[in-house]
Amino acid sequence: xxxTFDFSMELNFTDAYKRSREMHVALxxxxxxxxxxxxVLTPIQKSDRLAGRVEWGAVGFSPHNGPPDCxxxxxxxxxxxxxxxxxGAIPRNQRDAVMxxxxxWKTETTQxxxxxxxxxxxxxxxxxxxxxxLPCNFKPMIAMPLYRMAGVFLDYRKLLAxxxxxxxxxxxxxxxxxxxxxxxxLLFEGMLTALDVVVDSCRFYxxxxxxxxxxxxxxxxxxxxxxxxxxxxxLTVASxxxxxxxxQLTWLYTLMCGSLEIGRMDSFLGDFYVRDLKNxxxxxxxxxxxxxxxxxxxxxxxxxxxxxxxxxxxxxxNEANADALALLTMEAxxxxxxxxxxxxxxxxxxxxxxxxxxxxxxxxxxxxxxxxLYNDDVLVPxxxxxxxxxxxxxxxxxxxxxxxxxxxxMGYGTPSGALNVLKALEVTLRNGFDPVxxxxxxxxxxxxxxxxxxxDFFTAYKKQLVYFIEVLADQEDxxxxxxxxxxxxxxxxxxxxxxxxxGKGMFAGGVRYLxxxxxxxxxxxxxxxxxxxxxxxxxxxxxxxxKMVEALDHNFVGYDRERxxxxxxxxxxxxxxxxxxxxxxxxxxxxNTVRNQRNRTNLDWYLNVIINNSQNTTLGRWVxxxxxxxxxxxxxxxxxxxxxxxxRKGITALINSIVKPSPTIHxxxxxxxxxxxxxxxxxxxxxxxxxxxxxKKGGGQAxxxxxxxxxxxxxxVDPDKYKDLVVRVGGFSARYVELCKDxxxxxxxxxxx
Length: 753
Description:
Low-confidence stretches: 130-138
Structural class: alpha/beta
Largest sheet: 5 strands, mixed
Oligomer: single chain
């Protein structure tokens, strides 16, 4: 039987938007939030110790938490609505109104407004969803705008210190001051309404918990629900004073503001935990039970690339208390079992409590893909330089999503663009023509045969990259401008420096640092291809330019000799001077070109991120054969990692290669390392020594999987027996058997040490 969708919330939301369409944007957003919450909040489930679940509507408002591919801010999930219409899954009395709603949002979503503002330079270079949406990984293209305001890291310390009543008092004071000074008092009126919505949502869940407690026959469950109701009731009238209350407020505010990240939980919750522990308010077992509930909620509601919980590192307040909670958090991860979320992240530095790293390595050695490891001794100076901020600010760096780096509640830098570096090389070989789509896609700078030297060709390729980088930087700048005019993002603005003090919304001049980032894919394949072109075509003359492009056009069918020559050229990842120098040269050019965009935009920073997720595989589907010997449609290398199997000279050579690209000029680069579980169990000391050497040599980050290659091979044959096999894909973890087949094969191709 076809499920019937009730679009009452969406219709109410749309009506609220229409009624307030001509009002101040803060009042309009507040009216829409009233229509959205608690309507999209879903019931407390049997195992929940924390309240807060959500099923986002087909229409709504959120920075980056609408249904898949719905954009951001004011969004509309066209496919879901159209599917319901086609299948008769709408109450008959709603059909006309739903059709009208669908037509209304076609030009009223925030994404549609950004696309409508595209400049003449953007239109030919960037895809748009004017008529129909299609995920980027189904399109052969070089540059892709990504519509989202991702990477929300709120000032939780402020939220927990003030609580909802204290935050209301602060915003009220700001409103009164704005009224007296002639400032934008309506912004603060909107905030006050938004905070009332949070209070109402606490009461919504409080009443629900009381009702379920009365109905259950389980005394223990009833007691837990009564305790939860008491926590929620307390939060409506006072700031949290216990670990439980602080955790509940953290979670519900996170959910409602649309954030997908938790942040430095040990820093802002450590004092609550240690105080409760000392006073007998909570036990370690009880605290772990509450964290397990948080783990379940994150796994149920967040996507695999999100849910960052960060522990350890420089710049934490009351480090001893933070360490106590960090250790408890890792124990909660261990006892919860192997899962794909949350993305537990350990920041570490020389001189930090050694128990944290010991615990982390024990988890990793047992086959957990968490915690992810971030080296503050490398990354704090790197962030200081790349983001151009003081060291004290850089100490508050936050990895988000797949590994992009922003600044905790001070600096926002959503990754809103992607560049297929290998695709750009593909069209440069052919005078800007894309052989996959059969269209002119890039600059017409000549074909490979037209260049007399490799340097001339490399210069043309760089011009191609500059063209698309500038367009994407301009698009990110434009996205912020349009977004700032559309909505102040009330929940975010109240907990980001310096929005309240400036009396401005997040993206309209409020936040202290407004940056951006550009994801790049295929960097390693492009570098290896450049090495092959330089050596085989220009220096050794093993293949003519015409013959090489011909071989690529035919996907090497009938060109075995040419492919073997290309495969035999030096490859990044083997500590080869030639291959690594070209990789470093490309890396430096990309990162510096992206970084320099801040000089021609309004962004405080704009930085490259080399954080490949499974997009190295999905985007690779639309790139033809490449000069590194890779065949058409095959996966590209993941992030800063050599292409699968190309690192042939051992772990020492690999480490020597991957530490060469500088971390000081970008906003994140992930490094996936895989070790065999047999090796780790038999020689734990050597395993730890390898990681220590990597970090001592300048390694900034490591995502480590400990698993035998044989288990991956067996999982492909008998997936039902390996449902709990969790692997690192790129910037996220996933159950291996649930991945697409080509993603599985790309992971299998990686070297296991």
